[in-house]
Amino acid sequence: MDWGMKNRMARLFQKDGRTMFLPIDHGYFQGPTRRLEKPGETAAPLLPYADGLFVTRGVLRNAIDPACEVPVILRVSGGTSVIGADLANEEITTDIEEVIRLNAAAVGVSVFVGTDYERQSLMNLAKMVNACERYGIPVMAVTAVGKELEKRDARYLALCCRIAAELGARVVKTYWCENFEKVVGGCPVPVIMAGGPKVNDRGVMEFVRDGMDRGACGVNLGRNIWQHEFPLAMMKALSAIIHADASVDEALAIFTAVKNDSGS
Ligand code: 5RP
After folding, report:
1. 201 DSSP 8-state letter
2. Which stretches of the chain score pLDDT less than 50?
3. Per-residue model confidence (pLDDT) at position 196
4. Distance 222 CA to ligand 1 centre (A)
5. Do residues 234 and 199 make contact, with C-beta atoms less than 8 angstroms apart?
6. Residue extents of the structural domains in the chain
7. pLDDT for the residue numbered 159
8. Residue 109 and residue 163 in contact, taking contact as beta carbons nearer than 8 Å
9. C-beta 80 within 6 A of ligand 1
10. Structure pTM?
11. 221 CB under 6 A from ligand 1?
C-alpha cells in the first residue's frame, strides 16, 4: 500500500481501527428523502462526530462547506430511481478526475449480487478500483439488495462481501445479520454496517453492539440517526459503542443524557 492510500485509510479509520461514517447519499435514488430535504442542514450538527461523510458530488458541491474537515467518501454509482424498473441497473456516474478534483478520501460503489445486473455492478466496482488504485484512493463496495430485503442473511452477505474484496474493494459496507462473524470472517478487508430502515432505539444499539462484537470495524448509518427525533443524541450514543466500547445500556444512557441536556 502506498503512502497516499495509507493516509486516506488512516483518515477514514481512527487509531482504534474503527469508524463511523455518516451517509447522506439516499437522494441519489430516493429523491428528497424525509429529513434529508436539505442535506447540508441535516449533516451540519452531526459532522463533528462523524469519521467520514458518504455523499454524492451534487450534494457535496451544493450543500457541504468546503472547509469541512471530515473525509469524504464519494458515491460514484447510480443512475436508477425507486420508481424505475430495477434499482440494480447502476452504472458509474462520476469519473476519476472528478473524484480527485473533489478531494475525496474514498469512493463508494454499489454491487447487486444475485440480480440481473450482477455482472454489470461487479464490473462497475472492478473498473472503479482500477481507476482509483492508480491514485491511491480506496474504493468502498456497498453490498446492496435493491428492494429484496429478505436476502440479508449471513450466507448471502458473506458471498457479496468476499466477492467485493476479491475485486479490490478496500472496505466493504454491508447489512448487519445474525451470525455476522461469518460475514466478517470470510472478508479480508474491513467490514462496516449500514442501518437500513428506521428501527427502535434499543434495536439499533443492539445490532451495532452485536456487529462490533463479531468483528465489524464500524458503521455507515443514516436513517436511524438523521430520521430520529433526536439525531445528535443517537450519533453520540452510537459513537460510544464504536469508539468507547459502550454496552447497549451505556449507549442508551448517553442517548438519554444528551437528549435531556440539549433537546436535539
Ligand atoms: C444508500 C446507501 C446508504 O449509504 C446506506 O444504506 C446507509 O444508510 P442507512 O443506514 O439509512 O441504510 O448506500 O444506497
Report:
1. H
2. none
3. 80
4. 6
5. no
6. 3-224
7. 97
8. no
9. no
10. 0.96
11. yes
